[in-house]
Batch of 3 targets.
Target 1
Amino acid sequence: MNPKEIECIRKYLDSVDLVTSEIFSQKINYNEENLTVILCLLLDENSPLKEKLKYNLDELNIDLKKYNSKLGFKLVTNEHNKHYESNYSQADIGFVFTIKNPEFGTKKKPMLIQCKKLYPEAEKFSLKNKYKALKVSDEQFKEIKKLKKKKYNFCYLFYNPLFTSFFREDCMQGMQYEHSKRYGGCSTSLSNPGIKITNTETIEYILGLDETLSLENFYEYGTSRMFEEFSSFIIDILKCNYDIIDEESRDEQILLCEGKIVKKNVVEDYEKNPAKNTIYINYEKIEPEY
């Protein structure tokens, strides 16, 4: 990817980030499901909300064409309902990236995303507010660790409001964090916490230092790489900086991201090796049962 392509893609993704965060700032009691619907709608190429974006997907494609870009990418978002999430994916969204590069060909990359929001304690937010729905002691966290052991690609996405929704002192301190060298500097013009993404290892590390997770924890313990902006995360995937593909489980992960259950059929084979009773695992694609 050349600098012009990166600039255009970042501009589009930052627009999505900004609108999502603005809506959260206006509707602070929105839950993760509400915010996830909004995020997915904004990323949809036929989105009814695209007029809210300062720079939408149509404008992105026009500019890429103007710069004679040969890059082609598509991000499909699949929302997982509560039944599918709790029983199969442990994720709110399944991202499937399709990247077309004239040099490397076409690649598909799946990513399971669990979404959490910052909860206010009063009429405004503070840096000490927590992502209350994230607990290392709950079953979901344990199930996600099991998926990670199977080399599934899994990340946490955190919804944060604009700093205008914070108490003044927290707003000023938060902006200093965003621009500080310790955090890595703000790579966009947002100057807001916005949507951040991190991996499960970072969550385990921080929760090993504090019993609960707050926005302040991320700024204190994190780095720009550990607590990444939404646009930077997507761009790193497109640039192949994230090796998020495990070849052996790629097809299974894509099905899971798309909201299609992968059911294990266990077949016992006594004839080939009756002493060891070899077990064969086959995967069958079936439609979800709600």
Note: The chain is about 40% helix and 20% strand.
Target 2
Amino acid sequence: MTSDPGPLAALAREFPGWQITVRPAGLALCGAYWQSADGRHRRYIVAATPAELLEALRSIRTMETDQARR
């Protein structure tokens, strides 16, 4: 995680199980990586902005919550 105290810190607090990164040098890419405890399941999300990344992570959380209720 970068030292940016803004949106990235908020993302890290809301999704503590994910590694949140931003690629510097004008690439404008934000990424999030998650791996299950046993290492068999992985997810990697790429977005252009922290806001897009937040939306994607919240969507995943909603889908997982819905599946757990079934």
Note: The mean pLDDT is 84.
Target 3
Amino acid sequence: MVMIPLVGVAAYLGAALAAARVGDLEKTVEQLNAAIEALEQRPPLEVTISPEAAREIAKAMAATTAVVVVPPDPDMLAQAIQLRGERARMEIPTWRSALAVPAGTTASLPFYVPEGWVSLKRRPIELASDFYDPDIGVNIYSDDTLINPAGPMPLTTSFTVDTGEYYTQWQRIMVEIVNGTVTDIMVSIQVSVFLLESSYFEDFARPLIDAVQKKVMALL
């Protein structure tokens, strides 16, 4: 049996290709078989390190290992509260109302968080109308902050508005309809919100947020 070192495999393969060019097929097969057998029987690579080196590697790995703490977002807090079963201390109401806007006028409809409650999570606001036109515009404010930064949104079909970063800790949502047409319209507005009792927010949610903040600051 011919044993071929790994470093000689390339030479054997080159010789095999050269033999094939001159038609020596039998020699080619033998050389290829020898090369394959050498690769199959090659012992596995073993690495031996000293105990001192192992300790240094362990120290380096420990020094570069960090714990990632994810701050609780409103969705996480809402899910945790729901799992605790605190039904008497949370509510998820849906407010739906209709707003009449005469032709050429602007009308507003506010939604307020009830006293003693905190807004924690809100679904997108839904709007629909009995008449659609590009000259009908919609502005939505969260505590006087305009949510849609590009000016009035044209009411050309029913749609939803994602309130984004403004969807927590608000006290009032204001929906403003600008009717620039000659047609009187009726706009329906629906707002769903996750309400948490104020004392429960202070006792449960805020300490959790503060604890995570301290862990994050400790890692920085």
Note: Helices lie at 9-21, 25-41, 51-63, 74-84, 198-219.
